[in-house]
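Cast an eye over this sequence plus tokens and explain the fold to me:
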Amino acid sequence: MATNSPRGSAAPRFSRRSVLQAGGCGLLLPNLLPTALGRNSIGYDLPQGEKQLVMIQLSGGNDGLSTIVPHGDDGLGAKRKTTLPDTSKLLAIDDYRAFNPMLKTCRSEYEAGRLAIIEGCGYPDPVRSHFKSMEVWHTGSARGRSAGDGWIGKLAAEAWGALAEPLSVVHFGGRAPYSVFSSTHPPVAVASPTAYRWFGEQDVYAMGGSAICEHEPAMDAGEASAPEAKGRHAGRDRALQLLRKTLDDAKESSAKVRRAAGAYQTDVEYPASALSGSLRDVAALISGGVGTRVFSVLDGGFDTHSNQLTLHNRKMATLSSALGAFLQDLRRSEAGRNTVVVVFSEFGRRVAENGSKGHDHGKAGPMLVFGDQVKGGLYGEHPSMTELDEGDLVHTTDFRSVYATLIERQFNADSTAVLGQDYERLAFL
């Protein structure tokens, strides 16, 4: 088992009227034209041996020090009098670190060599705002959204280009994160196995930061038949025709997702949680071979400013049970065994607890990488518990090194082209 670490160590909405007034849906069409102009909209089977990636976002700022607990630090108990997990029940990694008592799946995957823990993940000049920090994580750039597409959107363009299909990137659960936003390869966003996120016959919900063209009242017969109206609305009619075509593609993609989820059969019993449901849907699409290369899943509730011990332990138990079923299910197929699963959050939490038995927004935290292809162990260096930045851990690993490793070794793509600069690759793949 590899070890490199010593002990010390929401998308905008636009009305159709405003988009059209901005210039014939010019804001929207770059994101929709590839589908509207004839790409196969119902996906395709991946070639044998192709690899997949599942990104699980723990939204709200997961407390890394209560996930991977540095129990060997003598001063930890004094800083966390009410929020420290029961040290008698910790699941030891070594004489310094241990898993939260609820993370039994992580412990078993780590012991089997299928879990890499990347320590101290963050970025230079971090911010404690959920939105600003997520923009950095979602784009891989300190500039956030002004840097352009999300990093997964850029990956789709770089790795698959014209071969990318509408089902190449799929998000399950709620509004899709900006990481999957692409001006050329829009993702599919699915709220459940039985419903694609679209609203009404002439409405398009383009997730991940794309515009939404909402339905307007139809023109009356007189306006529609006037010659000057025909000329004035010619460009708009063409745009609406493309939007309707995109909606048809969405319906076909939706049907394929529903068929894959509905037809899926597994002996693995998933626990009853929203996260488990989303991961079961991911397993269904991986097994069904619909052509998806990157999956995005979001699990919220990690903003533990108060009553953290109870709330965080509950979230850890949900994460562990969902991952346990999902990883077991993946190992049933070659496609699943070629899948890598990454768990991350936008930041950690402060070292010392606050006056509400919780922890406020922090900075660095661990990333977890699971899979049969993963070289398990500890990577990076554990942040110092004494040399803090205004009470926060100082990051020791740039999270973009994890992205670069995934881009290069999971998908054989150019990480510099995707991330804008060269980052160190790690040895977990």
